[in-house]
Amino acid sequence: MRGARAQPNTGSKEGVNSSKQQKKKKEITIDSFCTGNEQRANEPEGEGSAKEKSEIPANWIQALEELKMQFKIQLREAEDNWEKNLKTKISHLETEALELKQENSVLKAKINQLENEAKEMKNEAKQMKGEVKKMKDEKKEMKDEVKRIKDDLQRKSDQKEKDDQNAKDEIQSLRTKIQLLESSDLTRQQDTIKQNQKNEKIEENMKHLIHKTEDLENHSRRDNLRIIGLPEDHDKRKSLDIILQEIIKENCPDILEQEGKVEIERIHRSSPVLNLQLTTPRNVIAKFKNYQTKEKILQAAKKSRYHGTTVRLMQDLAASTMKKRKAWNMIFRKARELGLQPRINYPAKLTIFLQGKVWSFNKIKEFQEFIKKKPDLNRKFDVQAQNSRESSKGN
């Protein structure tokens, strides 16, 4: 009987492809075998050995091996699926990054093309102005010539009728030329107006494209964090990657406990070459692999300390956006002193809380017009003094 049972279970592939019913029977057989062992522990030695030979199934070892092999196959399949999914996600991210770079290059090419077209149109407009001026000079010369002819006719009124007719014909010809010149001058003025309108439209398109390019650059920096005030002498002792990990550990250890080691794709100083004339250290820009981890660090530790030095963490943005935000600094500080709860929202919009409402301003001029209508607030901000300071800086 034992030889007959062992024969159909000789290969591992047949054990893997067996049905659920056969597995259940094998488990029951193994359980019964284990139960048998417990019972035999309480029996005499001679009787136990005899029952063991009669009750132990011949294929329990093979069934156990088949179960192990099936578990290994399932584990290997799960690992393969995980690796495939990870590679697919990485491929999608690389494709998206490449598409963003291509779109950025296309926009830059369009901007260059529009700039070249604007230059050509400006040159054409300049040339047209020169031609119009030339026409006006010719018109003036013609008028002078007509006046001279009229004077000659007045002095030679006693000349022959033929000479008079010739003079009249000449005058008529000159009048026709003047009319043609005046008509041509009007046409050129109309063309100049159309050209100016076209130039204004091109300038609007350029502003739109520049704004869109700035927005794309800001979105491409969404995973970046800018560290301000980190002394450069630390770079000689440790790498920037290790320094950033220590800053996170010192100021927001909870994030390290949740995330483990924070993964950073790239970290460097804002300028590759050290400028000895600068009194402040170069900013450090870190690109994180996980956007949410970067946001947690930014919210938890905007003002941090590293070995006794105060450093500031902020979102990395395009240079043009940073310049627009910096223009609000004076107003922002004054609004904070007055308890107006100021905030700089993306990309460079100021919001304040006044009289139970939230007011937002896209430009400094809008804010100045707003507080002119509120005399008390206007005196506190001292807009005229601020305008004089800004004008002196501009000069």
Mean pLDDT: 78
Percent strand: 5-15%
> Shape from CA axes?
elongated
What is the total domain count? 4
Poorly predicted sequence stretches spanning 5 or more consecutive residues: 1-54, 391-395
Order of helices and strands: HHHHHHEHHEEHEEHHEEEHHH
Biased composition (Basic and acidic residues): 40-55
Pfam family, one: Transposase_22
Domain L1 transposable element dsRBD-like: 319-378
GO biological process, one term: retrotransposition
Characterise the protein shown here:
The chain is elongated, with a radius of gyration of 44 Å. α3 packs antiparallel against α4, α5 runs antiparallel to α6 and α7 crosses α8. The protein is 69% helix and 10% strand. The protein starts with a helix and ends with a helix. The chain has 395 residues and is of the alpha+beta class. The protein has four domains: 2-58, no CATH class; 105-220; 224-316, Alpha-Beta Plaits (2-Layer Sandwich); 322-394, L1 transposable element, C-terminal domain (Rec A Protein, domain 2), CATH 3.30.250.20. The strands form two sheets. Strands 2-3-1-5-4 form a five-stranded antiparallel β-sheet. Strands 6-7-8 form a three-stranded antiparallel β-sheet, with helices on one face.
